[in-house]
Design goal:
Blueprint (H helix, E strand, L loop, with lengths): L5 H23 L4 H4 L1 H35 L3 H7 L26 H17 L7
Helix pairs in contact: 1-3, 3-5
Length: 132
């Protein structure tokens, strides 16, 4: 059995989701160039690929923050202190109760990236293995 890293798993899930989109588009014909034009067909295929990449990157980054926070013994309140410029509708990941998927809008990628930038040096200082 092949052992995949977390990064490889999220990449595989994203590719599968994109392939489902492409297969659905071909079999149902909702992106048929003769119906909507070649430019719009290309646009929607690229948009689908972009969304698949965003899904991959955001979920991988979310799980990375959860990993480092758990290894460092941090809780949601600690992460909230590390991200003081949150808007009223934004939140941080909860290491004690992580979601399987990153919340779509509630935890923005900018917050996750900022937290990763702060957690990674702390993890390196404590010799915590890198998230893979």
């Amino acid at each position: 059995m092949i052992k995949l890293t977390h990064k490889q798993r999220w990449a595989a899930v994203s590719v599968v989701l994109y392939l489902v989109f492409v297969i659905a588009a071909i079999t149902t014909g909702f992106l048929d160039p003769s119906k909507i034009g070649l430019q719009w067909t290309i646009f929607w295929y690229f948009t689908g690929a972009g969304l698949a990449y965003y899904f991959y990157f955001k979920n991988y980054s979310y799980r990375e923050v959860i990993y480092y926070a758990q290894k460092l013994g941090l809780h949601k309140t600690d992460l909230l202190e590390m991200a003081p410029d949150l808007k009223h509708n934004q939140d941080v990941p909860d290491p004690d109760h992580p979601s399987f998927l990153s919340p779509f809008a509630q935890v923005p990628i900018t917050v996750v990236n900022a937290l990763t930038d702060q957690l990674l040096p702390q993890a390196d200082a404590q010799h915590i293995p890198r998230y893979k």
